[in-house]
Amino acid sequence: MASKEAEAIIDLYQRKALDWIESRARTKLIEKPWLDRFRALLPPAGPILDLGCGSAEPMAAYLIGLGHPVTGVDSSPAMIDACRKHFPRQEWIVADMRKLALQRRFSGILAWDSFFHLSYDDQRRMFPVFREHAAPGAALMFTSGPVHGEAIGNFGGEPLYHASLDPAEYRSLLDQIGFRVVSHVVEDSDCGGHTIWLAQLI
After folding, report:
1. I need a labelling partner for 112 at 20 to 30 A (CA). Which of 28, 34, 44, 79 fits?
2. Are 43 and 10 contacting, i.e. CB atoms less than 8 angstroms apart?
3. Which residues contact 121 (CB under 8 A, 6 or more apart)?
4. Cα 162 to Cα 111: distance, rounded to the nearest angstrom
5. For 58-106, what is each residue's pLDDT tens digit?
6. What is the pLDDT of residues 7-42, one digit of tens each?
7. Could you tell me the sign of the dihedral formed by the alpha carbons of 58, 151, 166, 121, in that order?
8. Among 167, 161, 192, CA closest to 8
9. What global pTM score does this model have?
10. Would strands 149-155 and 158-164 be described as parallel, antiparallel, or unpaired?
11. Strands 134-144 and 91-94
């Protein structure tokens, strides 16, 4: 059963959206090398689905600037309002990624610092969602924890839930939906300690 902290994530990000936006605006795009690896697997101007897009700054903004149309999904209306304000030509959707069914496929799917807020079972259930939205040869990139376990961080003085499956289980889940792992780095010191998965549909 998901903890109360896991169940509180959507409400927490909605209430603290402005705090998150201001905090993220003060950080550099340390994710750029990984975004470039992700892009290298996409066709030019390939459409991207950004799950948990936040305010679109800076990651989606970087991809948009390079000519990729982005469809961003976030459960926080305040985050999506910020996206629409700054990038009105892109598509921004208020939705829970766990229930997503857009009936469209994308060249790239990104779930950076979002997917790992889901409970174990919700993470497992996301893999068919990834597959349903993946065009042939699509790239998928997400962040997780380094090992199986739950962790409670802090956001605005409130508990912030994270969970991770075992790396072997992530590999198995990716294999089940037809993705091969292109790159996997645990606690990348060049990217703020993120544990990153980059995979491609084969």
Report:
1. 44
2. no
3. 2
4. 14
5. 999 999 999 999 999 999 898 899 999 999 999 999 999 999 999 999 9
6. 766 666 667 656 666 776 667 899 999 999 999 999
7. negative
8. 161
9. 0.90
10. antiparallel
11. unpaired
